[in-house]
């Protein structure tokens, strides 16, 4: 087998991984989810879940990638010693294809807004403009353009393509967002927005805890790119001497910083326009903000800077989603990278076109289906790390970790017990609401605990038998 690509430096890996994490999830999804779920209350629950579930979950995915040294199908097969490992890896590949299909459609919208912001094309009638371009043949065109940019980067490989681009784009995103947040702070009418976003509203939190939990957990996984095998793939290109726990913390903190920063731009601006934040939904970014840019001084320049930042963030996430299926073809059947990139992009061109033409399917796939698939993927990683690899996982955690190695046993305990309960809780709640069953919080926790023990028993029998 040909030698595999590796990152040129550990910094390159960290920047690429933050690039994967920080994307539309932070800028497009996070502010409107936060605004629609009580502002500061959502922020508090979300941060708690990022720390307690996201960080150990991401670390589990890194452990699998560096230990397996392959893309998900090969890595999970060799680590589990079972054909089921390949099936789970194939499920990851499917997840990345599905997410990228809708991601590329949104990427196309952003690309269009970046290009037309200097002319203020959507300023006069933001609602009608978005309504006209959101779905249909023009949306297909911009989806294909966005996909073409992403494919062009993956085409050049891990270090000449992904690492190089991440090193430039990610810092650019941060600089632009810091500038925009500072500009926002000088605008009139934003005080209520800051109060809503940053003031701690304990009453709302206690009254709505159960309903905030689901979206907050889904967002924590989506934003950290956990559960799709993209982080596993990125970790398969790193060395033994980098510290996985340290890198994971740096990645999670940077990603959260970018999300909170985006909120500091979007939420106060929406408030300044009197846009009801709970009503924004997925179109908030395009419709509500457009109105804000229109009415403020220097709006065109600011709008261009804003959409350019979102575009770069989206590109660095999309490349991780494309890299996973492409590298799987390279690893599994020895296909040359360039041919694999063309083939997978061709498939995505078609699936994304389907979603660009149908708003209801787009919404179903980008919400419920994506959340479910990421949760199933993460659950499989937890089972393999926490219930099967165990000592091997601890050894991989410790390699290169220095003094942070002492955290390995508590991490393994979290991965084996706490996380499966949390993931089954959110999975069963989502499935329950799909079929119209809604239980109270206590019953849902009980269901998740029982399911965890059942799964544990099934895996024990399968592994030992
Ligand atoms: N984390 C990305 C975002 O927040 O936009 C989305 C994402 C990328 C999800 C890669 C999953 C993934 F594997």
Apparent shape: globular
The fraction of residues assigned to DSSP E strands is under 5%
Count of spatially separate domains: 1
The biggest beta sheet is recorded as:
none
Bound molecules: 4-fluoro-L-phenylalanine
InterPro entries: Na/ntran_symport (IPR000175), SNS_sf (IPR037272), YocR/YhdH-like (IPR047218)
Organism: Halolamina salifodinae
Transmembrane segments: 7-28, 40-64, 85-112, 132-156, 168-185, 205-237, 249-271, 301-322, 342-366, 372-389, 410-435, 441-463
Keywords: Membrane, Transmembrane, Transmembrane helix, Transport
In a few lines, what is going on in this structure?
Its main location: membrane. The protein is an all-alpha fold and 465 residues long.
Describe the 3D structure.
This protein has 465 residues and is mainly alpha-helical. It has a single domain (10-361), classed as Hydantoin permease (Orthogonal Bundle). The protein is built from 19 helices and no strands. It has helices spanning 10-21, 24-36, 40-68, 72-80, 83-116, 126-133, 137-155, 158-185, 191-198, 202-224, 230-235, 244-272, 284-295, 299-333, 337-357, 359-389, 391-398, 408-434, 441-464. Helix 3 crosses helix 16. The longest helix is centred in the C-terminal third of the chain and has 35 residues, at 299-333. The model has no long low-confidence stretch (mean pLDDT 92). 4-fluoro-L-phenylalanine binds next to helix 1, helix 2, helix 5, helix 10 and helix 14. Keywords: Membrane, Transmembrane, Transmembrane helix, Transport. It is a multi-pass membrane protein.
